UniProtKB/TrEMBL annotation:
This protein's UniProt keywords: Metal-binding, Methyltransferase, S-adenosyl-L-methionine, Transferase, Zinc, Zinc-finger
Molecular function GO terms recorded: histone deacetylase binding; methyltransferase activity; zinc ion binding
Keyword Transport: no
GO biological process, one term: methylation
Species this protein is from: Phyllostomus discolor (pale spear-nosed bat)
PROSITE patterns with a match to the protein in the record: ZF_MYND_1, ZF_MYND_2
Signal sequence coordinates: none
Protein name: SET and MYND domain containing 4
Length: 356
């Protein structure tokens, strides 16, 4: 979604130019972010709030109950054209606009799991299958979803789990042969194919590593620095009148060795350059892929399978855990503010101007 950053920035620049020199100096020489915020917020007037509300009016982030069907159908078009990445993002947009525990969200999650399967993202696919079922995926469609789960498990080398699902499906098919003949035959063929695949895999000697690489969040410092918090003992802090503060190596550093690991004090996703918005239905529901569709809004981790906030269509996360942490820390406050809080990135601009 495009943001009216330039308009707000121009407005703030104009206000800055009208401030008395003494006030500008006070803000520029403030020692902490809290001081800058306190000085700046005390200058805000009711008319500033009106400007912000006016700019935000066209950037609503409430969930639209009509949007999930639109995004699901657009995603289906991409899927049929074998553009599985595009389909994944569109299904994610449908998920973001869906209310929890509804057929809409369960279908969008299930469809996204199919796209992720074709992208070879089997772990993400399994998570989406579980999410679809958690939100009430229709009983009549469950066999298709379970077959996909079994096939993911086969591809991941988890043959025992896959065999159990196949056995359960066989029992299910035997008990419920009333489904449409053509659909039943397709499911039976897929099931037979899966059984053969499991048997082939069982005769292979290859092993499947649990993980080829450790995720960044699982990496730890080899030895923590006693003088510098969150830094490795392999570095030392130096100060220079021209360069300011910087780190230097104090010993040989191994390839891939972690040197600094700390939580960001503040972070923001740069919206980047957006493609033009085409008119028509897309003027109401945006089908463009933006940075916010591909990264977690809390930890900034790249993710194809986002988990949305339950209350708005804007905030997206890499997991249920990140979503809950964001809600507990700050999003419970900003969620109801609508488009106004989306100009948070301009606070960085304001600070930069105040530092001049």
């Amino acid at each position: 979604m495009d943001l009216p950053v330039d308009e707000w920035k121009s407005y703030i620049l104009q206000k800055w130019s009208l401030l008395p020199k003494s006030v500008q100096v006070t803000i520029c020489t403030a020692e902490t972010l809290s001081d800058i915020f306190l000085h700046s917020s005390s200058l805000l007037q009711p008319e500033d709030e009106m400007v912000l509300k006016k700019l935000s009016r066209g950037y609503l982030i409430e969930k639209d109950p009509d949007a999930p069907l639109f995004y699901k159908e657009e995603g289906n078009k991409k899927f049929q054209g074998k553009d599985y990445m595009g389909a994944t993002v569109l299904y994610s947009k449908g998920v973001s606009h869906s209310a929890p525990n509804t057929e809409d969200i369960s279908l969008c999650y299930a469809n996204r799991s199919a796209a992720l399967f074709h992208l070879g993202q089997y772990e993400a696919c399994l998570k989406d299958i579980s999410r679809a079922q958690m939100h009430g995926y229709p009983e009549r469609l469950q066999p298709k979803l379970m077959l996909r789960r079994a096939e993911c498990l086969v591809n991941l080398g988890r043959l025992e789990e896959a065999s159990q699902i196949i056995s359960d499906l066989e029992s299910n098919f035997a008990a419920k042969q009333t489904r449409a003949a053509s659909q039943f035959q397709i499911l039976q063929r897929t099931l037979c194919h899966l059984k053969m695949k499991v048997q082939e895999k069982e005769h292979l000697t290859e092993t499947f590593p649990a993980a080829l690489t450790n995720a960044f969040e699982d990496m730890n410092l080899r030895e923590e620095n006693k003088q510098i918090s969150s830094a490795s003992s392999s570095v030392s802090l130096c100060t220079d009148t021209l360069k300011g503060r910087y780190l230097i190596a104090t010993k040989d550093i191994l390839p891939g060795e972690l040197l600094v690991k700390e939580e960001a004090f503040v972070s923001v996703l740069n919206p980047g350059e957006l493609p033009p918005l085409r008119y028509g239905l897309e003027s109401k529901w945006d089908t463009r892929v933006v940075i916010g569709d591909l990264y977690c809004h809390r930890c900034l981790k790249h993710t194809l399978a986002t988990v949305p906030c339950d209350g708005c269509s804007y905030a997206k996360y890499c997991s249920q855990e990140c979503m809950q942490q964001a809600w507990d820390l700050y999003h419970s406050t900003e969620c109801s503010l609508g488009g106004a809080h989306k100009k948070g990135a301009t606070e960085e601009e304001l600070e930069r101007f105040c530092r001049r």
